[in-house]
Amino acid sequence: MTEVELMTVYVGICPIGVFGIDDKNKVVEFVLFERDAQAIAEKIDAFSRGESFEDLDELILKLGDEEVDRRVDNRADLYLKKNLRMLALGKGYDPADLNKLLSQIGIAKSRTAIKKKERRDKLIVQCVSAVSDLDKILNTMSERLREWFGLHYPELKLRDHYKFAKKVAKHGNREKFEDYKPSMGIELTSEDQEVLQAYAENLKNLYKQREKMEKYLDRTTKEEIPNLRAMLGGTLSAKLLAQAGNLERLAKMPSSKLQLLGSEKSVFRFLKEKKHGVKGAKIPKYGIIFTHQDICNAPKDKRGKMARLLASKCTIAARTDFYSKEDKSAALLEDYARKKKEVMR
After folding, report:
1. Which of 26, 91, 174, 195 is the most exposed place for a label (fewest CB within 10 A)?
2. Are 168 and 174 in contact (CB under 8 A)?
3. Which residues of the chain have pLDDT under 70?
């Protein structure tokens, strides 16, 4: 008994549906799409990535036991590109409607492509700005709480703002504090205490929110800018990114400019002083990267060299994060450590 030789069916996709084509360029089976441009664009994108979707599964089911070839740019794709209009007209499409649909699909595909290019570095920038705004609010509210509660319990000595807010929110009245000692502060009514505790509770929650945002930044920088994060840490790398505006700008920036990010006011002051002939005017050597421990802890005569070294490595890191997206932080850190020893000799 001879085995039945299975026919190879080439599966392809086009704007009107998915088709199965045999070796003789004959349509074996097909499934037409609903005329939804955005949905069609997404299906074409999914097909190009080798992913499955409902219409494709239906076609494969129709083909039964036939051997299927669904590689991109196979015989079916070539056939469909050449014969799209003929197939569409044969399947009930009006020429004007087909042109309109093709135009809408093109727009939808462009929209999808733009979305793919959008990077999460913009989210990091916004979060850094939000943390900065929150810091200003927290400082103002903390000082207000200290002055306010200090009228009731001036003897309370607790430097940490968060712990201060936490204790006031929990206890309210000074007599409920663990280490309470007789105080010269004014007494609180139940209403005074209620309002103070509510204010302190809100402040405490804002500190918790800031902590969550810091953790979010740490995770996100690890995913989006792993090389830059390895060089600077989560917080500083996020702040540097925010100063640049986005990762693309940072990646295309020369290291000399990256080194000065965050020192714009000092640079403008230097240019103004130089213009007016002020003696002793000095251009700044660094911006926010000065807060990196390798620079701020270095001897004064080494700080400029350390800033240039760190900036050059950060430029390489930013470009790696933007263009290749590969994590090469281990090699970067190794080279940086070696050159740092040379600078610090």
Report:
1. 26
2. no
3. 1-6, 113-118, 281
Are residues 221 and 329 in contact, defined by beta-carbon separation less than 8 angstroms? no
Distance of CA 63 to the CA centre of its chain: 44
For the chain, how big is the Rg over CA atoms in Å? 32
CATH number of the domain at 213, please: 1.10.287.4070
Domain boundary among 117, 152, 186: 117
Residue-wise pLDDT tens digits, 146-182: 999 999 999 998 999 999 999 999 999 999 998 888 8
What percentage of the chain's residues is helix, strand, coil (to nearest 5)?
Answer: 65, 5, 30
What is the separation of C-alpha 277 from the centre of its chain, rounded to a whole number of angstroms?
Answer: 44
3 assigned to some structural domain: no
SS3 193: helix
pTM: 0.65
Gap between the Cα atoms of 108 and 40, Å rounded: 9
Q: In degrees, to the nearest 5, what angle opens at C-alpha 66 toward C-alphas 64 and 72?
A: 105
Residue 31 lies in domain: 8-117
In this structure, are residues 124 and 242 in contact, taking their beta carbons and an 8 Å threshold? yes
